[in-house]
Write a structure and sequence with these properties.
five-stranded parallel β-sheet, Rossmann fold, 302 residues, three-stranded antiparallel β-sheet, binds 1,4-dihydronicotinamide adenine dinucleotide, L-2-Hydroxyisocaproate Dehydrogenase, Chain A, domain 2, 13 strands
């Protein structure tokens, strides 16, 4: 069973995308709002019925029902309103994530935790600290979404198939994200050989800013994060060992400890199996250090 705590816009969509990918026979949606997870589960099941997908999606307000889950996604909490930064959410959501983690520890102690609630990197730190789990079992989803956006901009600029675009986005899930241009390509051809410098700089900037744009237009980001969660879950449940960006507690990697930050990692059955340390150039390192400083100060503010 996969449990998704938080059955709002992103949690609901994550359940749908997970069911479409047939990631488990059973998906449980939990929420404190009465009726919401039940209604979301019904609505999703009606779609699955037409598709002929036999994944059971249930909704509940009872945390005890998550017993036996192999993964608990934490996407409960307040969303970012127009004009709000992710850091504004820090105080409200650290309490929510702390309490959901405590419930997961009690009812599903063997589960891998996938925090999604923003501000993501500090929330991964909270979930890790509260759970006492080994760090590899806390796999934060943030960079995977930033990567979807980066890929979409590369697709739009080059016209090449989305499927041919390989890229990485690490760092903070927020202002100090680091799209790794040197490690991005179209079917292996480095981005720098495909697009002019100025266009690449524009894409990097747009990748950093587009979440705020979507929020200003439609009030929230929903489908891309829902799908990105399912993509991370797929690498775990199918033990795909994909090299993807995830936020996980650092222990010296990239020169930082005591914080969680987005890094490239091999994600498989046991969660983060290995963090991959890339040689960053001076500019990249500066962004990574700024990201670490930002997350460290957020954690200090909790
Ligand atoms: P939403 O407001 O639609 O849903 C949040 C749900 O959490 C609500 O249904 C609420 O009742 C529930 N909730 C609150 N406290 C709870 C608790 N203690 N236990 C169980 N449920 C609880 O918000 P939305 O748009 O789904 O976003 C959820 C979170 O995900 C936000 O923090 C948002 O910023 C974050 N997010 C993170 C992304 C990422 O890439 N890491 C991308 C998009 C959103």
């Amino acid at each position: 069973m996969i449990t998704i705590v938080g059955s709002g816009k992103v949690g609901g969509d994550a359940a749908l995308f997970s069911a479409l990918r047939r990631l488990d026979d059973e998906i449980l949606l939990l929420d404190i709002a009465e009726g919401l997870p039940q209604g979301e589960a019904m609505d999703t099941s009606h779609a699955l019925a037409e598709l002929g997908i036999d994944v059971s999606v249930r909704g509940s307000n009872d945390y005890a029902e998550m017993a036996g889950s192999r993964i608990v996604v934490i996407v409960a909490g307040a969303g970012r309103k127009p004009g709000m930064t992710r850091m504004d959410l820090l105080r409200i959501n650290s309490k929510v994530v702390g309490s959901v983690t405590a419930e997961a520890k009690r009812h599903a102690p063997d589960a891998i935790l996938v925090p999604v609630t923003n501000p993501l990197d500090p929330m991964v730190h909270v979930a890790h600290r509260e759970s006492g789990l080994e760090r590899g079992r806390v796999v934060g989803m943030g960079g995977m979404l930033d990567l979807s956006r980066f890929r979409e901009f590369i697709h739009a600029a080059t016209g090449h198939s989305r499927d041919s675009i390989r890229a990485l986005v690490i760092g903070e899930h927020g202002e100090n994200m680091l799209p790794l241009v040197r490690h991005s390509s179209v079917s292996g051809i480095p981005l720098a050989d495909v697009l002019p410098r100025e266009k690449i700089a524009e894409i990097v900037e747009s990748t950093r800013k587009v979440a705020a744009k979507v929020i200003s237009l439609k009030g929230a980001t929903v489908h891309a994060p829902g799908n990105a969660i399912a993509a991370i879950l797929e690498s775990i449940v199918r033990d795909r060992r994909q090299l993807v960006p995830v936020s996980t507690p650092l222990d010296g990697e990239y020169g930082h400890s005591g914080i969680a930050l987005g890094v490239p990692a091999v994600v498989g059955r046991r969660g983060v199996e290995r963090i991959v340390e890339l040689d960053l150039d001076a500019g990249e390192r500066a962004v990574m250090d700024a990201a670490a400083a930002s997350v460290r100060s957020a954690i200090g503010g909790i």
